[in-house]
Write a structure and sequence with these properties.
alpha+beta; HIT family, subunit A; five-stranded antiparallel beta sheet; 2 helices; binds guanosine-5'-monophosphate; binds zinc ion
């Protein structure tokens, strides 16, 4: 989408610190990290939320899971452990309306919903 910030990052129109990329997904460091490793993984195709992935796009889920594994290895948190989060919609706390997965790691994470 034209004005979507994550689409702009995918197209290289906004700078980002790239962590991993393949033909379907793009991963970059979060601009406001809340852990030593905090990476955002996005599908290159614009989906507003998790709820917008349809049956015909099913392959993207595998691509995203593969990207999580690659990012975890690149950040050396694959064996230490890490957390993945997908915020969806208003009450889910989603701020950027382009489907994205957070990968947090590099320190012991507490479980907090608030
Ligand atoms: P949400 O709350 O939508 O799940 O999270 C959006 C995330 O995107 C936030 O953690 C925020 O710091 C990150 N973010 C927002 N704008 C930018 C940006 O322009 N560049 C990068 N690298 N991260 C961004
Ligand atoms: Zn987008």
């Amino acid at each position: 989408m034209q004005d979507c910030i994550f689409c702009k990052i995918v197209r290289g129109e906004l700078p980002s610190a790239r962590v991993f990329e393949d033909e379907s997904v793009f991963a970059f460091d979060d601009i406001h990290p809340v852990a030593p490793a905090h990476v955002i993984i996005v599908p290159k195709k614009h989906f507003a939320t998790l709820m917008d992935i349809g049956k015909s796009d099913a392959g993207i889920s595998e691509k995203i899971v593969n990207a999580v594994q690659q990012v975890a290895k690149i950040k050396a948190i694959d064996k230490r452990g890490f957390r993945t989060v997908i915020n969806t919609g208003d009450e889910g706390g989603q701020v950027v309306q382009h489907l994205h997965v957070h990968v947090f790691g590099g320190r012991r994470l507490k479980f907090e919903l608030e």
